[in-house]
Each structure stands twice: as structure tokens, then as C-alpha cells.
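Quick start: read one record
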Amino acid sequence: MRVLIVEDDPLFAEILEVFLEDKGCSTILADHIQAAKDQLQVSPFDFILLDNHLPDGDGINFVPFIRELPYKVPVMMITAEDNQIVMSEAFEKGADDFLIKPISVDLLWQKIQRCRALYDKETELIQKTTRLEKLINQQEQEEHLARYVYEHVAASLIAEEECVGTYIQSSSAFNGDVFISDTAPNGNRFVILADATGHGLAAAISILPLVATIRAMIRKGLSLAHIVHEANKKLYLELPDDKFVALIGVEINFHKQHLQLFNAGMPDVLSLRTDKSLEHYQSKSMALGILEPENFDPGIITLDTGPIRNLFFFSDGLIEQPNPLGDPFGMDRLIDILTRYDSKEPLVSRVVNEFTVFNELGELLDDLSLCDLQVEALMDKHLYDNTKKALAHTSGQITATIEIEGGMIASADIVGCLDSIMRSVDMVGDLRQKAFTVFAELISNGLDHGILNLDSKLKNDFAGFAEYIELKEERLANIPDSEKLSMKLAFSPETGEIDFSIIDSGDGFDMNKEKDVGDDALSGRGLDLINKLCKNVEVIAPGNQTKVNLKRDY
């Protein structure tokens, strides 16, 4: 310990010096205030012993100077005055302790040790507090950035909200539930609710990587089956073993007037029917990210949209939330609300209002998400919008020819390129959507069965679907330069017709051999759809060239 002794009595100063050095201290003597100031400005001290009456002033008036130093040092005043007023003033000005001469050096040492120990603890506490504040500030900045990124992504997920009622409430600063609502280029409408394990930042981090993947696949026109397979594969590879994502996915096909429903680890999806009955659709698949891709079996079901008025689904944070008495909201309570629903207010508002009364504004134990997919209203809106758009007419014609060879076949977004051409000429929505569906199926057929020689029978069950995707990826990476896809598109806005032809360099494929394919099959349905959407379909022998004609519906 380095001690500054400010004392003008040489004998007493020497006694203090000898005693403290015997205790292992290093001492410096100053016999007046200015000398003490000079020493303090040269180097720091661990302790100061200060006499009150000094040649150039009172030590009590020197204390404020010490307190202005850039570091804290204990000050003990030693004086012959037994004056309580002086003692009180010394403490007010910042002295830490007071001894009256004559002193006991043993008592002096005890006081020095105690006072220094208190200072050391205070300094340590200040340092810890400073570090903690720095960490908290850093954490707040990181959370602010994470929250900004999350909210920016989450806010853009629902591109179209009409006929899709949603409600989402987080149990913490971050939400592990997300909605995705978007329309594919073929006109199919996707509505997806995903719920990551747990809640808070960890859940949000688990869910966000999935969002970009799903949106990109929707905008490429991929099917719900393909999307959930890829989503499961991504999560299986990227998430820890104890993390997974439950998910409900709906794909509405306006042309076929049906919807596909996928439920993986979520509560029952509830269908409010036009006859006022209520249907349950239980989870048929494991949550995403648990099973290896080759073992993943998405139980997708196909439903006719005609009898469905509303499709209501939600995260388990709704039915598992307890009220102050500990009773869960429960599925039975929700079913009672839906059974009594009279359409006088939005369905989501009705459920949220009753949930709020039940919960008595209590803290949520898990993230809460609700979705009311108004199927009947969506189907009516689609029919109305297409009727309006069909009134548009433009003169002229556009013809485009595209030929792609070798490895470019795998890397090029061929369907996206054709869709860009259709967008550039402001093609009427319904015709463009039908054309996208037809182009995607024909290009997929020419690529998969013509150039890549893949067997569509692999897709007849969900286990084979994963193998089909893996084989496709492997063969796409090794396409010979000799392989070729040639396409020609001609569009006349005046007649509302599209002529499209495609030739692949494969051995040929008989499109007409796929007959009477059921809705539950995973392959063959697109071929039947082409015949329904097109005015004319011609397959030219040996089956590697197809010509179609599409016409706008009036």
C-alpha cells in the first residue's frame, strides 16, 4: 500500500513512517499542503493521512482538492483537536475517518485496513457495475438490431390481407410464430402459419431462416408438397436436435376449386362449413426439422372448397393459455365460440375478445397466433376479379423464342423468364396464371422426364417424393452440353390467346398415358390440368414436342 503522510511535526511523521513501513507500506512525507499537492499530481496513492493544522492552511480545506482527483483514495484526518464541529465539517467535506492525537498505532492500522477494504469493495462494485452496464447496453443494441430485422421481415410476410384475418401476440420481445400469405405466379394462394419451439429470441432465430425459403419457393410456383419437403430438409440440416418448427400450410387452387392442407405438429385445423357444421383436421405429420428428408412423410389432404366457409387455425399458445385460476382456454371452449359464431364481427376479433376476457389480461406463457382463412370469400373474390380483368383488350402481338442448352438448363429460371415476358405486356391476370401453370408443367415434364429421365412413379408416395427430389438435384448437376430445351411463345392480346410449344432433347414421353389420376396422387395431376386449362393440346411423336393453345375466359 502506498501512503501519503501530510504532517508538519517531524517526530510524529517519523513515527508514522516507521510503523507503516514495518507493515509493508511505502510512504511519502509532505510537511505542508502544497508539497502534498505536488506529490498527488505526480503519482496516485492508496491512502492519505492528513493533519489538520499545516503551515499553509488547514487540512480540512485540502480534502475537497483530494476528492477532485481522477481516482478515489481514502483520507483519514489526524489532529489534536477534540472538536466535534471540526469532525463534522471534515466528514461533510469528504474525509473518511478521524483520529485524535495521541493515537494508538494499532488502532490506526486497523482503521487503515478497514477503510481501504471498503474502498476496494466499492471500486470493485463500480467496475462490475460499469461492465454490467456495458454488457446490458451491448445486449440492448443487439436486441434492438435483432428486433428491427425480425419486425422488418415479419411485417412483410403477409403480402395480401384481404379475406385472411390474422392476429399475432408475442409473449416476449420476439415472436416464434410467423404468418406467410402470398400468391404464386400460377394464381394459387398460400397461407402458412409456423410455430418454432419455445418462444422469444431463440424461437425467432429458428423461424426466420425458413421464411425466405418458403417465400422464394412460392414465387417460383412450387407445390405445397415440394415446399414442405424443402423446408423440412433445411430445418433438419440447420437446427439443433432439440429445435423444430410446427407448421400449417394451405394452398388454394382456384382453377380446380380445391385446397390442399398440411398440418405438422399443430393443433387441429377447424373448418366452418356452409351448412354450419364444424370439421376437424388433425396433424398428420411430424413437425419440420425432426425427421431426415428421406423419412419425412407430409400427410397433405385435398379438400373441395365448395362446402368450406372459413378455415380457422392457430398456434397452441391459444388453447394452452391458463386463466388466473389455472384453467386452460382449451379446444372445447374454442369450438363453442366457433359454433356460436354469427358473422356479425370478424371471426378473429370474436375469438380474441373472448380469449382476453378469459385470460383477464394475464401474461402470455407462449406466443399466440390465429388465422381465419375466409375460403368462400376468396373464391368469390377470385371469380369477380377475373371477370373485371377479362374486359381489357390491347391490339398487337408478341412472339418470343427461347433455347437453352447444357448446364444453363439447371441454373436458368425458365418459367420465371416466361412469366417476365407475360408481365411485361401486362397480360390479363387469369390468363397469365393459367399460362404459368401450363408452362411450369410442360417445362417440368420436358426437363424431368425428357432430359433427366426421371420416373414419375417415384412421386406416387411421399417417401418416394424425397428420393425424386434428390435424384433430380443429382442429375441437374450433370447435364451434358448436348441436351436442349426449345420454347416458343406467341401472345395476341386482341384475341386473348397464347400459343406455346416446347421441344426437349429427350427420347419422348407419352403425356396421354396418364389417365384418371386421383386428387390424392402426387404425380399425373398436372397433365390432366393442362387439358382442362388449354383450348387445344397436341403431343407430337415421339412425345418430346408439345403444342398448346390457351384462351382467355370471358
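Residues 309 and 376 are 5 Å apart (CA to CA).
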